[in-house]
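Provenance and format

Records in this collection were gathered into a single text stream. Each protein contributes a sequence line and a token line. The two records reproduced below are adjacent in the stream.
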Amino acid sequence: MPRVPTSVAGSTMTADPAEPAPTSAGAPLTPKGRRTRAKLLAAAREVFCERQYLDTSISEIAERAGVAHGTFYTYFESKQDVFREVTLEFQRELLEARDRAAAIEEGTLLERVERTNRTYLEAYRDNAQLWAVIEQVATFNDELRTIRRDMRDAFVVRSEKAIRSFQRQGLALNDVDAHYAASALGSMIDRFAYVWLVLGEPADLDESVRILTLLWARALGIEAPAGSLKRRRKGTQRPT
């Protein structure tokens, strides 16, 4: 049955979004096939968010997509297969959003870090239900655990590269290992987002971004004097 091949083990498990999804025979899908596959992915994402992984069925995904049950197997082998593709698609969205934010050179270094952190927290907030399912599945599925780790590693690699650049420019402490710093600071933001948006601890987006950015910068010795980021607190928010 035709399906989209998975990535090479040990890689970041991302596919080139410019390339059409191939079939098992190596031929690209037709435009109609790509549209059907996209509908199935969108439907799967919705159903997983609503019902969680274990309670989702292929029949529900096909029904939500408006296709016959058997059509699902033209594009995916199993529920795990489509969930993997949903997760990889989400990873691409996150990385593209992060890279767009990081590419904007306006403002001070601290403001640029703040913009990148805000982009991540907003994306986490807007996809909190999907994040919850990904974290759940990663606890019992080895393949999804690897993908989740690769998602994190992709952000760590980018942060490490940025920290090394700051160090070369004399903007950050040189006695801090860039890789360990990127891993630790990334974990801080990632875990904060999880506790806030998945576990439901009340927090305010603007104040969260401000505090996390100040902690991130000061841990690296980046200039972040008092009052350098305006407080815009409007009250606590729970994920919806």
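Adjacent record:
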Amino acid sequence: MHGDVKMCILACSGETTGDYRELGYGGTEGAGVARNGSLVIPRVSRDHGGFYLCQASNGIGPGLSKLIRLTVHGKIFT
């Protein structure tokens, strides 16, 4: 992401919606998951950067997961 960052959207590809969990420190206060499974972080800041785990399961067989690294670039808002 470059420029003025006001919102961050992470998307997991797949047939089911994603379940996101942040790994490590920081916070995802105010974050939510859209109907399409994308993680939405309004008013994103550099503190939101880090590793996130996207998990998907449909109840049949083992679920899938993918580790996503989010790096936030852009102007800092105060």
